[in-house]
Queue: 3 jobs
Job 1
Amino acid sequence: MKSDLGLILRESYKITFKNKWLWVFGALLIGGSSFNFFSSSDFSKNDKKEFKNISNSVYDIPGFPISKEDEAGLKEVDKLLSQYSNDFKEIPYYSGSTKSNQNEISTLLAITNVPKYYWALLGLAFLAFLFLMVILGLYVKSWATCALIKGIDSTSQNINVGLKEMSNLGRPHAVELIKLNIFSTLLAIIPIGLSFLIMVISFAIPSLTVLLGLIGFVMLLASFVFMLLVFAGAVLGKISLVLGGKKWKEAFVDGFNTAKKYILDVVILGIVNCCIGLLFTCLSILVILPLVIGMIVGIMGASIVPPLLLIVVSIGILVFIGIIILFTAAGAAFSVFKQSTWVLLYKQLTQPIVSNDIKEENTDGK
Amino acid sequence: MENKMYSSFFNRLVAFMLDIFILYVLGALVFILLLNSSNNENYIGNIILFITYILLVHGILMLFLNAYLVSKFGGTVGKLISGLNIENEDGSRLTVKQAIFREYIAKTVSFVFFGLGFFWIFKTPKKQAWHDMISSTVVVKKRNIILGILSLILLIALFIYLSIVAVTSASDLSKSFNGSVKNKVNYNSNPFNIY
């Protein structure tokens, strides 16, 4: 192992608390994941379910849809039976059923009446909006990453930088970083997709099922290892891109080669970061859970005396906001710490780094 | 050297609210227009048109329009009414690229930590929020805010009035729609339900 893990963790901790402006970009990187419009929610699932129910039940309604001939015939029948039908309305079960059917029919009628080009227009507008938001989201995330890497680098060299300096230093690399991110994601995903494809094909050809299945399985395992290497390469490539001012291709190759050469260092740091993240999550749960239980018990207890309830709910809301702010700050700090570890690792692997403590000692000695 | 009057937090809040309420009033007007042209058969079509309008105008067009206004005139509509100007620290106008960066990229920084970045206006000598610091801009006060405040009051009142009109129109449409469907359902399904 070339890197000094203890030194990296110590330095990263110092950098995290030395310059609080880094936290702002750290917080942006936590929020970066929220620029995701593809996640399915229960709401949409319920909507689909509801729509399915509507479409099924409409066809269960007798007489719907009806033709013009049926309509003329029905007019006659209706005249004859209007008295009976009025009597039936008095029956509660019948009224409820009609009301429910009315709503279903009304929705379906209104939907079927919408011209097709309205839907096309809505689809286009939605796609355009989505495209714009994704582009903005990608840019914000890349810019924040670049600014953070530059900020960490400067802080590690005892240069104090603010928001403006970090942003200005990071901005020129943001577009290249987007390219690197897209390329590395595709490079990691394509082999896995191919492996799955081979495995699917193996089922279609009975004579080659075992052979192709085995090839697909081996390829899948190899793809996962390759994916790990690509992601490690991308992490180091990002740092190489920002600190070295390289183009995305050159930076990726550099990062990939470094990750390949020092795979043990990279994997160990990745595991350590994962463990710290896990610890952070466990601590968060340990802090949040008693507070939430306390709030629920407090509200339940205070509900007996209405004026007290108002006070307890107000305090509860304030505590809730406080918790969110606290965890945003803690998440931001962790984000900075994690990025610092990678920056310091890259610097140790590519050039020997001297600890600030050692620097200070040397200065004192002189 | 020219003595600049930097805009206070309150003035910027008024300008921001103005921008928001201009969009709300526009949205309410479009909504009422579509409601009034709705009948029992095309109301969902009109809802779709309204969502399309929100996505296109409020979501996409305003992004470019605001950037254009900032680079051409020095501020969004709200800021211009309130007599505020956005400019570079050296006093020059922002380019469209700079304006997009300030309005839609740098502002995300001010919004993290529950909008803490905006409260930096109280702290810095040039009354800069985090997004101003990042994009090297300042917001300068050119004249009194009174026109902005009056416009905001007027817009809020107009919005409340339009909301009441919209709710009343929607309620009328819903009543007429339910009545019409009820008749249709009774008419179509009763003969069969009897047997």
Note: The longest strand of chain B covers residues 84-88.
Job 2
Amino acid sequence: MFLDDYFRQYGLVAIFCVVAVAVPVSMMLMSWGMSRVGLRPRAPSAVKAETYECGMEAIGGKWNLFNFRYYMFAILFVIFDVEVIFLYPWATKFLSLELFALIEMAVFVGILLIGWAYAWRKRDLEWG
Amino acid sequence: MNAHDLYVVSPYLAMAGAAALVIILDLFLPVSGRGGRGRGLLPYAAFLLLAGPFVLSLIQFYDLGDAANLVRGGDAGSDGAEASILLGSLSVDRFALFFNFLVTGAAALVVLASTEYVRLMPRFQGEYFGLLLFSATGMMLLAAATELITIYVALELTTLPLAALGAFLLNGRSSEAGIKFLIIGAISSALMLYGMALVFGFTGSTQLSDISSAVARAGGGGAFGNYALLVGLVLLVAGFGFKISAAPFQMWVPDVYEGAPTPVVAFLSVASKAAGFAVLLRVMFTGFFDVSLDWAVLMAALAAASMTIGNVVAIAQSNIRRLFGYSTIAHAGYLLVGVAAGVGTAQSGPETPVFASIGPDSVLFYLGAYTAANLTAFFAIAAIGQRVGGDRISDYAGLVTRSPGLAIILALALIALIGVPPTGIFIAKLYVFTAAVDSGLAWLAIVGVVNSAVSAYYYVRIIRVMFLGQPPAIYQDGGARSARSAAPWAAMGLAAAALVFMGVAPGFVMGAAGAAVRALGV
């Protein structure tokens, strides 16, 4: 039967969901239960409450400013990067390709040049 | 790729090229120059550049002749030309060209109407027109796409610039509109992609023609004959439902309509909706006609829900742009009636669907009339907003004493949206409901007529406030009163003229719609 097969495959997913919920819930319940019967000591301290940051001591608050102009350079780098990725194989095979490939690359570079000209005229290449 | 392919895609290239040119022009024009020249030329440059795609579409229209499609067959021709790479991905037929003209026309009017509006934004005027034209490119491609991946790419090209445009005013409401449009658009894209994956898994192809034959082979039996197809098609409809702003995918509409720049809303409400209906019609009728008896019920239900939700909630609105948001949901419902009415049943047996071309015909005509009406209304709202400095309906009190021209034009658009002669939407509604009755959906036609009556209440309320309301003693200054330009008036006048023209002499657009629907080749 088509329907049974179809839903049986979802049975695995259902089991996975049940396990995924049951494991963390049981762990928390266990911890809570042990504190009730007195097996789990309770000794909070300032060090324990600190943010865990890969073993480093956290500096400053979480609402600090950072300079997001880097993203502009990242985008410009992507333009340049993609250009090179396509130019390189094109250049190695240039002799066997015909005039059509030359025109096509000119179109491609032309489109990218619009992006460069845009960034240049909008003063995104200047720092300060 | 051969020379003929380039010719086939030339309107789309011209539109994208126009967008790029506008952005480049913006970079090299002087910032303000003498007496505001320089940047002020941008809208007119964009308007003139729109002649490119328009003329190329016109050439293709006459070149098409008796042929169904400009894209030539796949085998390398006898003249040694390379095989077309467009085969299966695009169909440049009368259907696509109909929407080319609709989108180009709407874009041209929106550009004209924006000349006064863009003065509100000192920066990014070039980007404004550039993004508008990029979005128009996507809409034109959407009407021609016959392959799922192409449809997806065209849809994203339509949606992403509109999201950026929605956030253009740099205030809270506008940002909210842009972000909401972006996020809900992304969710619906994800749903649609999932649907496409299921359809591809079931049929083994992304091309609508192959999908159609695979669906025909699968035969009937049960809902859609197959669960994968059922889920896939429902998810596809969810994705398209976002674009056409039909219930229950309408949550973004009022917020976006309230916050986004008014000319952008005008463009969004007509061109984006038209492109959404274009792709819906093509996918449903070309790809999935063999299971149409199943999805016609779905369309009818969506239509009834959209009409009712849109009209009932619109009654309670006090902001005119929110009101138009709900009004556009209701109109998506009327249009969906036409989609559902495209499927009739044969006399011989009730199990085989028959293509009732009057349904899609009426949808295309309705789209034309609705485009004219809504553009008129939004251009008037944009101009009024700049004069009275607000979008609440109470701000419009006694407008007729202050700006009689704008009040009369807005009243004309509102009367049209109710569906009163002599305007295009009267004919369109008549057409849609006739199609519904013909296809055995009399109940849906009744729901539609009742809804039209309900809609009259809130449309007429605005007219009453404008003409009979007490004007405020002291007018607020809308900020842009000194800017007097003929271009927005020209845009308003052209849209209103088109609206009345379609009501008085509907034959021209009706004929074009009929020819377009025949090109679907169901």
Note: Chain A has two domains: 1-64, 70-121.
Job 3
Amino acid sequence: MRFIFALSLMLVGLSAGAQTAPKGPLEIRITQGVEGALPIAIVPFAWSGSPLPEDIAQVISNDLTRSGSFEPMPREDLPSQPTDVAQVNFKDWRVLGMDNLVIGRISATGDGGYLVEFRLLDVFTGKQIAGFQIPSHVSNLRLTAHHISDIIYEALLKTKGAFSTRIAYVTVERRGPKDATYRLQIADADGYNAKTILESRQPVLSPAWSPDGNRLAYVSFEERNSAIYVQDVRTGQRQKVVSGAGINSSPAFSPDGQRLAVTRSKEGNPDIYVVELGSGQQTRLTTDGGIDTEPAWSPDGQTIVFTSDRGGSPQIYRVSPAGGPQQRVTFNAGDYNARASYSPDGKSLVLVNGGGGFRIAIHDLETGRSRTITGGSLDEYPSFEQKGSMIIYATMGGRGTELAATSVDGTVKQRLALQRGQVREPAWGPFRK
Amino acid sequence: MARIQAAIENGFVYPPGLPPGLKCTLFVRVIPGGDVVEARVIQSSGNPVFDRQAETAVRKASPLPVPEEPRLLQQMREFNLVFEP
């Protein structure tokens, strides 16, 4: 009885397979899903020997969590800790609903060198999605972990990861009412490995990355009046590019790295200028009597947006870098919109929206609509991460101002590693070459 | 059929930030008992992440709660799944 049943099933199966265009295939519709972080299990990497300075699997887990797109399994919940594909029992992970598994091993290659090997596995098909061996060094293990996060992110979400990028920001350490130290620092995107590139008793403001990631422009009051400098972060060499009477502030590199948009008030009130870095030639873009400041370039270099109060309250306007008419951009978004910068695809602006506190908002340039993505009472200085799905900003935390990162839809927020003193003005660097 | 829908919908997770209005169709083949032996995208949504999560959702729900009665089961051996959240 059973044999005949099985045989008839087989025959039906064969004939069904032979059809090239099944008539009216049974169709089931799936109309609901869960929009949320993808489950992933990251197992501690194998290593034998004296403790390594970094826990690579933990760095990867923190990176992926911070993006808002992944939910790594807590380490204490891992059912097993395989470090080789042969050791993986896929069923264990399927039962836990893990879509993906990351395993790896580290081996020493002598002289402080390491080889870090990892595999990203699809739990349900049992196949390897990605696997690499990355040469590293005791001084570079965090960067290797960030590279692995980038690879995993890109393999699963098909967009470039930004975990190996850097941020620049200023910290203020106050010891007395007239005794403060300002430090311009650069750090990894997760806040670690901070390096001071300028230390001063006078304020330092507005760091801005060059598109190639090799230079930072900033404002320094070291000569009592504000001046704009451009400094090579690798060599420390720097050049004063804008100085003179009045306010000199808000530098922003053009996408080709050849020009800076800046604010100068030498003609009486703050206006936007474009400075050619090679020749030093300056072109004035705004002439109205109000305050025009905080310029930012579009990714195609064709537009500069800036903050202006010419209409009575701060709003965002746009102008061509060659000069000409200026148009208002923000409407119906309240009485305070400032500090705009473009998303990498050029389709939206992230800005600070005010009115009963400050929050970060995203303004869609096509629809003209804004939406708030942070709920803090004092969130400022937003900067889009290079890929456009994360934003860093300064927020008021328990220990004063801190850096935080948020996913673009506002669902995941993470504090970055705390720095000494108050932190302000974060700027997200470009992808590392 | 509703039970199969529910089983798959439970496991269909997609990351935030995907464009709205995505739709893909999968061809699915099961053996008696409901084990999924084939789950293949026959019409892509154009978004590889969405497609992959749909495929993963089907495999995650395996074995599917297919009917035991042979004639009903027969109708369920192969079917298309249209993902349109």
Note: Strands of chain B lie at 13-14, 24-30, 36-43, 78-83.
